[in-house]
Amino acid sequence: MGLVVQILIGIIAGWLAGKIMRGTGYGLLGDLVLGIIGSLLGGFVFGLLGLHAYSLIGSIIVATGGAILLLYLIRYIR
User: Fold this and answer.
1) How far apart are alpha carbons 27 and 68 in whole angstroms?
2) Residue-number span of the structural domain to which 45 is assigned
3) Count of domains for the chain
């Protein structure tokens, strides 16, 4: 059940990151996949900084931060 929740949080984070990082975007499906990957990245980066999310809102914030970071890196590389 935890994996399903994590995927849903990633989808929400991808949608939010797509709205925050305006631009050409990668389409709805692309932003959602980037959100799922970004949520994993966000959890890793925030963990390195010693920050942890214990609630649903905190998890969405961490995942959105990771998705924004991933979108920024992808756009920088392009």
Assistant:
1) 15
2) 2-77
3) 1
Q: Are 18 and 68 in contact (CB under 8 A)?
A: no
| Residues 6+ away with beta carbon under 8 Å from 64 | 12, 13, 16, 17, 20, 35, 38, 42
Helices 27-48 and 2-20 meet at what angle, rounded to 10? 110
What is the tens place of the pLDDT at every residue in 12-68? 888 888 888 876 667 778 877 888 888 888 888 888 998 888 888 988 999 899 988
Q: Where are the alpha helices (DSSP H) in the chain?
A: 2-20, 27-48, 56-77
Residue labelled with tokens 């692309």: 30
- What is the Cα–Cα distance from 23 to 61, expressed in whole angstroms? 21
